[in-house]
Amino acid sequence: MEIKISSNVRNLPVNFLVINMFENEKTTQNLANTYAIERDGFKGQLGETYILQTYGEIPAEKILLVGCGKRDEFCENEVRTVVYKSVKKLQQMCAKTAAFDFDLGFDYGEAAVIGAMLADYAFDKYKSKKATRVEEIIFGNVSEESIKSGKYFGDAIKFTRDLANEPAAFATPSKLAEIALNLDGIDTKVYEKDEIEKMGMGAFLGVSQGSIQSPKFIHMKYTCQNPKKRIAIIGKGICFDSGGLDLKPPSSMLTMRDDMSGAACVLGVMSVLKYFCPEVEVHGIVAACENMPSGSSYKPGDILTAKNGKTIEIDNTDAEGRLTLADALCYACELGVDEVIDIATLTGACVVALGTAASGIMGNDEGLIKNIIDSGKMVGEKYWQLPMFKEYFESLKSDIADMKNTGSRNGGASAAGMFLQEFIKDVKWAHIDIAGTAFLEKPEKEYIKGATGSGVRTILKYILN
Ligand code: BES
Ligand code: MN
Ligand code: ZN
Questions:
Q1: DSSP one-letter code for 61
Q2: Are 166 and 38 found together in one domain?
Q3: Number of domain units in the chain
Q4: What gap in Å lies between CA 375 and CA 388, rounded to an integer?
Q5: Could you tell me if the CB of 259 is within 6 A of ligand 1?
Q6: Quick check: CB of 435 below 6 Å from ligand 1?
Q7: Tell me: the pLDDT tens digits for 25-58?
Q8: For the chain, which end, N or C, has fewer CB atoms within 10 Å of the first or last residue's CB respectively?
Q9: 369 is in which domain, residue-wise?
Q10: Could you tell me how far CA 266 lies from the centroid of its own chain?
Q11: 241 Cβ inside 6 Å of ligand 1
Q12: Is the pTM of this model over 0.90?
């Protein structure tokens, strides 16, 4: 889909002219006022659409009228929803070209482009019959900058969704490393297995040892002239989570190619930083491997030693994400950054608690957590803070090591957070659990089934502010 701007959107010979309508108000088009509102009683509720023939009265073949709800309740998030709904309708009508003549009183470009690109998304790489797409969209009453910014957001989200949707046979640890090495404007160092051993990442190595895919520790760096702040973002990169020897049942394993959604998010964010040029140094970190059962797998009862020297008794090989993150967190803390944010499809318990509506967030710094939650609100991603009471560590206590990797199923999302905290040293830290939001089993909100790109918009917005 091509996205353009024009100062003359009303007079283009497109398939559809898309105009907005607030509840109980007239539109800027007489045709719409006469037929949709007066004759047919179209109300203009948020996301409602109405199609009108123009019979040569204006250059566009048809008008798509889209409801925006009440004017005083309409903000950027509603722009995204409304544009998403419009583009879905245009696809249904097999439209090839559309011009958006929205009259909103603010520069709605960024949110509109994100909405359009979310609607345009399909994972049809492996389908012989490709999805129906709108070829060209032209927006009016927006700035060049807002459109550009929206495109980079949209590109990053698409990048992440594509990668997380890919079968595990494609998105292997080596593939993630190769992608990271090819990112524009990013310096990447990939550590191979022997170097990972030398760095003392026993927890990460333990998880990886059952797979024939070799582990890759990926460190990407974006920097600028005088960074005002230094941040590390870490993504869980389990390219396939079979559970290991504590094998998952088939239904739970079905979508476990998505267990690198955190890594895909970090890669997506890194892929567009160059175009935004934020005055921040950003380190993107991924400990990539598979969690597989085999003769060489790590076993329940094993004791692993993480990079910071802490020992971990393996209680369940399916609690692998926190082990790989443990070493990545130690590594990030040693970089001397101001803030560390990790993002992971970490616990089924988080899905039980929050469903697909919100990601869990916790950490050791209320300010950082609040800023991430607020960035999410601006771009339409929801977070809910989960507690980090010391009681949650009780069940992780081990008789033979410093801790166990799992304990009680109850309070599992918080317990996982408490586990991660053991590997944080002298840094502001936030942990985001996207187990429920990263990958959908049915279409919801502005997403088709599959990967959503959860976290990309929020983390980008956070970095840019
Ligand atoms: N990758 C899973 C968590 C997950 C579950 C992600 C559902 C997305 C959807 C994680 O590695 C896992 O297996 N967690 C276990 C931990 C348990 C063994 C303590 C879980 O949540 O069941
Ligand atoms: Mn697991
Ligand atoms: Zn996992």
A1: S
A2: no
A3: 2
A4: 22
A5: yes
A6: yes
A7: 999 899 999 999 999 999 999 999 999 999 899 9
A8: C
A9: 153-464
A10: 9
A11: yes
A12: yes
